[in-house]
Amino acid sequence: MAGGNGTPGSPPAGERRSGTADDPAxxxxxxxxxxxxxxxxLAVGGAVGxxxxxxxxxxxxRLLADxxxxxxxxxNAILSCGRIIATDQASVFGFPNPLIGIGAFSVxxxxxVLRCGRVLLPRWVLAGVVIGSTLGGLFVSWLAYQSxxxxxxxxxxCMVVWGMTVPILGLSLRDLLASGGPRLRPWQQACGWLVLxxxxxxxxxxxxxxYL
Length: 212
Fold this sequence. Notes:
Oligomer: single chain
Shape: globular
Number of strands: 0
CATH architecture: Up-down Bundle
Number of helices: 6
């Protein structure tokens, strides 16, 4: 028997399947690839990373004005922001690295707030987040290597920035793979394992370098 205003066997008006190719409201469709979880991470994680970047920038300015200034996060010989900030690695491009974080995290916060406000973000925005966070992930990985093995000191606020950048990369890459069709979706789980592996390697490096 035909439906009230559709073809035989069709679902009633107003009902539609979710998550299909014909349903733009699917959780990882072409029009809405950014998941709510990533939206919250961009907003909250971006805010934490922005705060850490602002503190590091402020400490850098104070050190330039007063070489005897001791940052509040310089706790001992190992946890010493002052030693990190004074190195060449802290200004790789000729200006303090935290300025990059201020710009990048500000953009991520804006995107996260839009997504938390249920604004649909196109796939190219997610691709941009993945590209940016990939570059950021590579950069903080290099900084972690320099901090642990070359400089021999840890900056707590720097580690906060690391801790926000890598999960944002993992979750944004997961969402991008999920929006790329069935062939890419099986790789989603690998994103979480890569994030855990990154933290495990950094933690192992800290333990071996400073405590074993």
